[in-house]
Design brief:
Length: 347
Amino acid sequence: MHRIPIIILAILALLMCIACSNTSGTTADTDIAQDHDETAGTDEIAATDGDMTITDMNDEALASDDPNDEATDDDAVTGPDDTTDEVTDLDDIFVPDEDADTVSTGPCTVQFGVPNEKTGLSAEQCQPLCNCEGKFFQPPLYTEEDIAKLLAMVPVNPPAEVTEDPYDKPEEHQPVPGTVCGLFLDGTVPDGYRLETFESDVAALAAGAYITHWDACGVCSTLVNLVVYMRQPDLTDPVRQCGINNIFNKSGNIECLQDLGFDLPCAQIWYYNTQHTQSKCTLTCTTLLDADYHNPDGTLNDCLICDEVNSGPVFKAVAGRNRRNTGLPSSMCRPCAEVQPVFHYYW
């Protein structure tokens, strides 16, 4: 039997870690990423130089958050070494309806997500519910009827393709804190909608927009990509397989990502993110090929942290949408402080 070259194992480890890391926020929502926010400007970026616009951007939007929350978040639950009772079905988790009697003002000790056999956390450590520090958010279970309505909607200002690797100029692609992506219904075409970035949620609501996700609009902000995240809480295996089948084939890799449901611009940034993480995290990820996403204490494993630190800021700025800022749970659990309550009923 031939020995598998170590570089192939490294690539497999990276693809598995990258897939889950990005879907959850990729990477993108890390507070470490916000260390770079002060370098962000309001110039148009190559990946999003289409018709989507930035409204009322100002210097105050560049304020940075605490840089230490992501990798060593104090809200992460400290659990036993032998995590048990992992769940793979939302029906297995009890979540209360929101009312005055159920909203808790206590500290956040449970993370937000839908744990599966790769998560490494139990149902007591991770649930699709935030109920702490006066914040209650329970995302709905979107039906196929809801999804069909979302897929029928047509963007009138779709983003441009990502024709250049944004990681070549990372200083030009950094997230701007406080921004939101607003959605307007647009009657110029049947079932049309338009996306626009606002400097704050207050500005978006005042303009009459739905908030479709927090952070600026990007190439993954369109609703077809939202549906991919709704339908697949864990994209690890399919994204990894795209890479395995197309190790030296860029176009084939991107086409494979499109087959998962992503549109072309979103698939392109996923591809560039994967390649960048591979170049930065090979040594770290090689030994974590079969590792759980989380350590027993709730923190992310070192491979996912490497991806978030090195690739997260650019992905966040270019992609726009991810699960955390969209209000969707994934198999990589996150502190409730990082989760934005968003509902996707645009009718």
